[in-house]
Amino acid sequence: MPIDVALLGCAHPHVPDVLGVIASEPDLRLVAAWDEDRSAIPSVLAGTAVGRADTAIRRAHAVVICAPTDQRPALCVRAAQAGRPMLVEKPVALTAADAQRLAREIARSRTPAMAALFLRQLPALERLRGVLRERLLGRVADVAATFAHAGALDRWFEGPTAWMRDATRAGVGGFGDLALHLVDALAVLVPDEPPRLAAVALDELGGTGLGRWAGVPMSLRSSWAMRPGGLEITVAGGDGTAVLRDGTLELHRDRGEPERWVGPPPDAGESVRAFADALRSRRFPRDGLTAAVRAQGVLEAAVRVA
User: Fold this and answer.
1) For a tag site, which of 88, 124, 242, 301 has the least CB within 10 Å?
2) What is the pLDDT of residue 65?
3) What is the model's pLDDT at position 62?
4) Where do the CATH 3.40.50.720 domains begin and end in the chain?
5) Residue 4 above 60 pLDDT?
6) Which residue intervals of the chain bear CATH 3.30.360.10?
7) What is the model's pLDDT at position 1?
8) How many other C-beta atoms are found inside a 10 Å radius of the C-beta of residue 95?
């Protein structure tokens, strides 16, 4: 039986990833596309375009929400009231407090919801988690993480997507948009000791942050204006260093050649695939928005201090 999907919000850089996954999965079918700005709906979706978000929600079995951040809470609530499982871009609300309230409201409705934290589906991250779990690096000394792309240089945030550079509509800028993924990834690696940021230095398109993770110093850097960009997480320990670079994990020891494992690079479409798998199996993570809410709270607290 096909799974009918509605897309709420078409002006987001990850919309092509969403559409690519829907087109590649034979049991997924896009039945409705909505955007408050009708001109933001791509011409290829003209046949599915609708004038009201509620119409899109009613037509579908599940919804993917890529609308501007200031619209996400209301759309999530409407999807939850209709009992439609949802995948929502992060951050799920303009502030962590609003996101927490939204997560509680959705939880009360018992409607499944997931945040689009696609680094969680990265095989190399799970591999690095195993390295840390087995203590192959010895005692960890520090961690440095970077996530960046050249989107601002490549004019991703012009026209319908310009809202992403407006803090009143997006809630975060270049640093928060990508550092939220880094904070969540580090929380995945050591769930019992999530990262904490003590200080940040921001510019319009990115920034850096300092804090602690798993009891050791941590530095984060993210940017919308870095070429070639990519993901890199370096964990240094007494017995070696692990370097996760995009989809490749290298383990450097004092002796011998580095051990290398090569996997796929980060792919925003993987969060859509994970959502589709949950729809098929009817097995959703509990509190599927909690990780995104917590990561946003970590960033927000550090920015307030700054």
Assistant:
1) 301
2) 98
3) 98
4) 3-116+271-286
5) yes
6) 119-266
7) 79
8) 14
Q: How far apart are CA 162 and CA 46, in angstroms?
A: 22
What does the alpha-carbon distance between residue 65 and residue 44 come to, in Å, rounded to a whole number? 18
Show the CA angle centred on residue 252, arms to residues 117 and 270, nearest 5°: 20
pLDDT digits (tens, 9 = 90+) for 161-190: 999 999 899 988 889 999 999 999 999 999
Question: Which tokens is 103 given?
Answer: 């997560």
d(CA 25, CA 143): 37
Residue 305 has pLDDT above 70, yes or no: no
Residue 35 is which amino acid? D
Q: Is the dihedral of CA 184, 185, 191, 197 positive or negative?
A: negative
Fold of 119-266: Dihydrodipicolinate Reductase; domain 2 (3.30.360)
Q: What is the CATH number of domain 3-116+271-286?
A: 3.40.50.720
User: Computed from CA positions of residues 6, 11, 15, 19, in that sequence, does the dihedral angle turn out positive or negative?
Assistant: positive
Any idea what DSSP says for residue 135? T
